[in-house]
Design a protein that fits this description.
By secondary structure, this protein is mainly α. It has one domain. The protein is built from three helices and no strands.
């Protein structure tokens, strides 16, 4: 549901730093490796979205 917004945010027109996009990509890949074997894609989506929330 939020993937379109995340992808749109990372477009060059928004002048997002390439390092930020690479770190986001790396976080997602690490989460995919850690959740290997789980069949619930919604769980992975929630993990990605909560990782982008500011720390309390």
């Amino acid at each position: 549901r939020h993937w379109v917004g995340i992808a749109a945010y990372c477009q060059p027109e928004n002048k997002v730093a390439l390092g930020f996009v690479e770190s986001l990509n790396n976080k997602i890949r690490v989460m995919q490796r850690r959740t290997y074997g789980l069949r619930d894609e919604e769980y992975l989506r929630l993990k990605v979205l909560t990782s982008m929330l500011p720390q309390i």
